[in-house]
Design a protein that fits this description.
Distance between the termini of chain A: 27 Å
Shape of chain B: globular
Order of helices and strands of chain B: HHHHHHHHH
Helix content of chain A: over 70%
Number of domains of chain A: 1
Oligomer: heterodimer
Radius of gyration of chain A: 18 Å
Number of strands of chain A: 0
Order of helices and strands of chain A: HHHHHHHHHH
Shape of chain A: elongated
Strand content of chain B: under 5%
Structural class of chain B: mainly alpha
Radius of gyration of chain B: 20 Å
Largest interface: A-B, 21 and 20 residues
Strand content of chain A: under 5%
Chain lengths: ~230, ~250
Amino acid sequence: MTSRPSLYAAALLILQRDLRLAVRRPGEWLQPVAFFICVTLLFPLALDPAPERLRQLAPAALWIAALLSSVLAIDFLFREDGRDGTLEQFALSGQSFTGLVLAKTLTHWLLTGLPLAVAAPLAAVALGAPTAAIPGVLLALLLGSISLSLLGSIGAGLTLGLRRGGTLVSLIVLPLAIPALVFGAQATDLAIRSEPAAAPLYLLAALAVLGLTLAPVASAAAVRIGLE
Amino acid sequence: MNWVWFHRFGSPPYFYAVAGRIVPWLAWPAGLLIVAGLYGGVVMAPPDYQQSDAARIMYVHVPAAYVGLMSYTVMAISAAIGLVWRLKVCHAVAAACAPIGASFTAVCLITGMLWGQPMWGAWWVWDPRLVSMLVLLFFFIGYMGLRGAIDDVQRADRASAVLASVGIINVPIVHYSVVWWNSLHQGASLIRKGGPAMPASMWVPLVLVIFGFTFYFYAVMLVRARAEVLRRDRGGSWVRELLTAPEQPK
């Protein structure tokens, strides 16, 4: 019997593989960011772009765009691997399936959540936020997008292989994402108004940790059901 | 402890027969309790000291909210039992809960809006309790949407059970939202330290309607669950026997 690599090694392999795939198919991770920037920049066009009003609106615009973009991007998480049987191999590999699903979700976050968090300060500045707000906005989006990716993995698992998956994922994920939206928009708002944003940032971090511990269990169960 | 009685409920024919016998015992008390409670609340109870007769919508609003939350809890628990022990009947029960719970939640939201307009001066306010109740409605809709989107019955059962179990976090949030946040919505007035915050002539009818709605929920849920069990086992021998058996004298 050949020795099995550790879960950590397996997770690293998944990370390498998915990053390599992303380099060869840049559309998958570039499109959600482009969508995010596009949606945020629609707000000043739809409104009277008075600087004061834009600044008030910036947190809502950023977070709603981030939410929509992450719901759209979550479609890529399991779709290809579900179709070509890779997920079945994961399930048969003898490794902890929850661990592998978590590794996939975190890689997905690196590819979609992280670019979102990097793009957010740019969009915030374009909406009139002071440059001093950049660290706060970045941190809020970093922490919030972790929760969004983890919640999204549950929705993606539940709708694995369904024909009408797209709108259903949003219907499942968006209600679950409300706490992240509330605290994230609050933190962004405080950062833009140059006030201490530590309290909502701590809550966002708590949500991310809660998601890291509980969401992989649910999404692994969901993916397993989808594979049957 | 002997669990045979419980396991027998896992058998669809047994569940179908027993549930059919239980339904009238729930439906009749439900009707009587609702009529008695609404008569007591709408006709006999004194008007509220602040809101006068407008507060009488409470006799529908509060029980609907209670039963909406309860049906989500029943749905999630029975879905989780079905997921762990693979009991088909539990999944049928969970599936039967969703539309009823969604309706009660919608009734609660609509009566709340009708009540909020004259009292708060707004149909809707962005208040934690209102929002979390609305989210509850979305969970019901998402649950039904997921069930409807999956063709394979067993897969639909198991996937929707995962979703129902995840969504259960919302139930304590709704319940405690008026305690945790400064809410415009009033706090608990019935079950609280020091007894109800209203005279017996008001809380007794309220409790009657709550029990009435609860009985009604279980009666309708069992009717729906029976139909669901029948639909799933439509090819089964016991259904054929049921249909072809000669009418038994009552």
